[in-house]
Amino acid sequence: MLTSLSIKNYALIQSVQLQFDKGFTVITGETGAGKSILLGALGLITGKRADMSSAGDASQKCVVEGVFAISDYHLKTFFKANDLDYDASTIIRREILPSGKSRAFINDTPVTLSQLSTLGARLVDIHSQNKTLQVVENDFQFEMIDTFSNSVALLKKYRTAYTQWKTSKTALVELLEKKKQAQLEYDYQSFLFTELDEASLKVGEYAEIEEELNTLSNADEIMQQLATAVQNISLDETGAIDQLAAARAALARLNSYGTQYTELYERLNSTLLELEDIGEVLSQVSDNVDADPLTLERLNTRMQLLHSLIKKHQVGSVEELIEIRDRLDNDLQDIAGVDDKIEALEAQIQLEKESAFALASQLHKDRAAAIPHLTSLVEKLLVELGMPNAQFAVQLDSQDILTATGTDNLEFLFSANKGSDLKPLGKGASGGELSRVMLALKSVLSKHKQLPTLIFDEIDTGVSGDIAVKMGAILKKMGRTMQLVSITHLPQIAGQGASHFKVYKKDTDERTQTYIERLNEDERIVEIAAMLGGGQHSDAAIAHAKNLLN
């Protein structure tokens, strides 16, 4: 509920601080005094758009700040989702700077207008005469019947099933399209895969072939140089091995003369052994060098194939060709298994559809069962509101189509006069009648749901006398379970309020300003007497005002 409202430099209001109570609050004032300014200020902190004309003094900042007690509104999820600090006493502030820029804050954290509007809709519901048209909207009518029939939890469960069914249907459409596209590409993809698969690609193969080709292309040079190396190492008497062997023998004869000769002997022996091993390897390598033209042709053919595939697929290596081959293989397997996936998804969709229809059927039964009681309550309230011949009905028809609200078509029907046919509410009621129907429905709704702060802007238009008293009594009764504010011009309704604010204008030397003051008991008597007597405070008007207050 709204606990306080601060307005600075907004339209004709220079500065106002208001404290609000629970229950039913009335706001009165002469026509043009500025009651609509108050609604405009509330609109700013609930997400309505603003412009520079909102500021009274264009050179100064306009600030509207509201404090709301929100512990009963189950809003922690909203605050968490929007990364906002949750506080049971939440402060909403809107600023309009001299530059024309608008800023919004929730608990001192900057927020977007969309975030503010979403929260504002949960906290304040302003009903002007235009807003009364909401009663003819299908969403409101479904909300009304589902709340009254205690079907909100069931509706939530149904919508989960409905959303899952819709999601699966979308997935099926996408899968069928994928199959269609895949079939068009299947032959070509299959050809590409077969070509790569038959190539028997191996990681590192390209470098290996390059090395082999380099060897075969220079076989004569390699064999010649290897032979020279072998000859220099292994040739009898003049080869390096024989020369080192002679040196080793000489050192062997010095072993007994000191350790340094022994160490030199061992080092030379190791070198000789290594050289002998190198000689053997050189001989083996020389024997393995093959200048066979058939081998060279085979390797060249293989290299040309790899070059061709790399160029065709616009990659840089055999390894990337292997990745493409594997991906094509997976895609072809997916295409091969798509029919099984489609069949499984169709079976799942059928089950989800049956589940949604079952929940929708229960929704229909609960709604239908609640309609007689709802229509009875609304018609009784309409009688109290001066419409003794009013007829109110709810038309509920089930269809074989799933929608976000079930399988039902819902329409509120109304007739204000005896003997007249019931018509859809939007076509069968005047503006004043719609206001009373809205009040009746909201009165019923307030007993079944925690409503936001409800503000009625002259819902009493076209009402007077005893009917106004009854309307005031209904509003007062609604105020027992919620915070309700009514901007009224009727003393009969003003007298029913638990608290009373007066809006008035006062001229100064520089400008006209709007003021809003909370009235005490004596001030209320004077105000209501003025409303009764057209501004005159006669003894009869005073007595009547006291009577209305009591």
From TrEMBL:
The record ties this protein, via SUPFAM superfamilies, to:
P-loop containing nucleoside triphosphate hydrolases
Pfam families, alphabetically? SMC_N
Q: Which InterPro entries match?
A: DNA_recomb/repair_RecN (IPR004604), P-loop_NTPase (IPR027417), RecF/RecN/SMC_N (IPR003395)
**Which segments does the entry list as coiled coil?**
328-355
Q: Specify whether ATP-binding is a keyword of the entry.
A: yes
Q: Where is the RecF/RecN/SMC N-terminal domain positioned along the sequence?
A: 2-508
Q: Please, which domain of life does this record's source organism belong to?
A: Bacteria
Keyword terms, alphabetized: ATP-binding, Coiled coil, DNA damage, DNA repair, Nucleotide-binding
Tell me if Coiled coil is a UniProt keyword of this record.
yes
- Job description of the protein: May be involved in recombinational repair of damaged DNA.
Q: Which family does it belong to?
A: Belongs to the RecN family.
Protein name per its UniProtKB record: DNA repair protein RecN
Originating species: Dokdonia genika
